[in-house]
Amino acid sequence: MSGPKFLTGNVEAIKSFLDEFDVRIINTSLERVLWSGDHVFDGTVETLEMLRSAGKRLIFVTNNSTKSRADYKKKLDSMSIACTIGEIYTSSSASALYISTLLPLPPTRRTVFILGESGIESELRAHNIPSTCGTDPTFRRDITPADYSAISRLDPTLLDNSVGCVLAGLDFHPSYLKYALAYHHIASRGAHFLATNTDATLPSAGALFPGAGSMIAPLSNMLASKKIGGPLAMGKPSQTFLEAVEKGVGWEGREKVCMVGDRVDTDIRFGVEGGLGGTLGVLTGVSSREEMRGLNDGG
Fold first, then answer.
1. What contacts 220, CB < 8 A, 6 or more positions away?
2. Residue 198 and residue 195: Cα distance in Å, rounded?
3. pLDDT digits (tens, 9 = 90+) for 72-114
4. The whole model's pTM is what?
5. What is the pLDDT of residue 24?
6. How far apart (Å, rounded) are the C-alpha atoms in residues 24 and 253?
7. Edge-first strand listing for the sheet containing 25-28
8. Cα(42)–Cα(194) distance, rounded to whole angstroms?
9. CB atoms within 10 A of CB 20
């Protein structure tokens, strides 16, 4: 792979780069690419309007599973960024699509145990997939001696017999009880283990916070002790996510597709490993210029 070209301030190089992808899709991450917190980066709206006027198609993709596509549509609308729900893909929507179309769940075990927020619940509902835990307040409590006993017996009042999949994402209310139940659904009941994404950090308001990967790590460590592998991740850089976007958008070939993002480990890998025509790293987010430059060494 050839090293990166830095385009900042080079008008001719920028024009040439844009012309190279003048037919199909510009994939654009959200947080720290278009905005940070509630602050829209200067020139964002004008740039996106320019791309649309030049005939580019824009697809907005994000690993953040806490919001649904409808939530992101409201966020984009509030920032005067024009889009349709059909142009938005989240790790939650990709997970729901995968579960509904590709995961071999028997009819009696279609329920998904969620470690995560309402964005996952909304996308599963859109695909008529039943779920449990998630934002249900009855799971947001301390574990009790009676719980230990019930879980060890695989009591169906706590371990729902209809659960066939555990889907883990960013959870703002993790608890010992949730981890214990998720573990036994997988280790004792044989449920599939999926993750919306495995990002270690979540960028917001100009700082980094624990991401989905940090929430999932305790569960993965428990399962590793039983020689059970980690989750199948749906979000970037997973090619399952790219395939979901490709199926939804229906573009013809990937050579005219460019991925725009701020993280080398997710966004840039997503584009490179997916064989997209190009990737564009921005320096408004997680990865630094030095990390981008490290791609010269195949990093």
1. 230, 231
2. 7
3. 999 999 989 989 999 999 999 999 999 999 999 999 999 999 9
4. 0.85
5. 45
6. 9
7. 88-90, 57-62, 25-28, 258-261, 278-281
8. 37
9. 13
